[in-house]
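Page 47, continued from p. 46.
Same chain as before, 230 aa.
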Amino acid sequence: MSDEDTIGDGDDRILAAEYVLGLLSPADMRGVEDRLGGDAALRSEVAQWQETFVTFTDPIPEVTPPEHLWPAITRDLDTPVTTRPRRFGLGVLGYALGGVLAAGLAWVAFDSGVMRPAAPEYQARIAAEDDSLVFEAAFDADTGQLALQYRTGGHAPGTSLEFWLIAEGQAPVSVIVWPDGSQAETVELPSDLTGQLTGAVLAISEEPAGGSPTGQPTGPVRAVGPLQGV
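Result:
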C-alpha cells in the first residue's frame, strides 16, 4: 500500500497502479484525481493499468453472490472481535487446537477445475502452525459436499494423512484418508454432520498407512483450521 514516500518518489507508474487497485488513502486518491484532468501521461498510465488488470478477471465467470452474504458481512463488521483458544478436551487433538487456530483463513480459490464452489457457505484454511502442511476447504450446503484442496507439505513414509471434522463438544469424525499424490478431493458429508458446522474445526492427523485403525485419531495432529461461515 502506498504512503507519502511512495507518492513522492516520482514513479507515476506505481502510483497509477495503486490508484487503479484502490490501495491509496482517500487523500492520495483525491490527489491523483486532481492531477488526471491536466496530466495526459498519468491518464495514460491509469488507462494501461486498467486494461492490464481487466485481463486478469475476464476469464472468471460472473457469479451472483447469495442473498445472505452481505448481511453476514455487515453483521460481522459490527461484532467486536474476540479471540481465545478453544479447548475441546479430545485427547491427542486438544493440545494442537489453541495455537494453530491463529493460522488465519483465506478465501478458497481452487486451482482444479474439478471443483470450484461458486459461493461456499463455509470455508477453512487447515494449516500447521509453521505452514509446513496446508490444505484449504469449502463446503457447499446445496450439494452437501466438502471440497478439499492440497496446497503444500507432506507426511512421513508409511503413514497417511486423515481429515477429521470436530463439531463443538463432539468427538472427531473421520472425513477422508487423503490419497497420496491427490491435489483435490470432494467428500459428501452425512446430513447429521452438515447441521453441526457452525463452530466446527477441521483437523489433519498423521496415521498409519490407510488411516486410523481405531476410528479415532491415534497419531500426531499436523494441521488444524476452524470452519467459518461466509
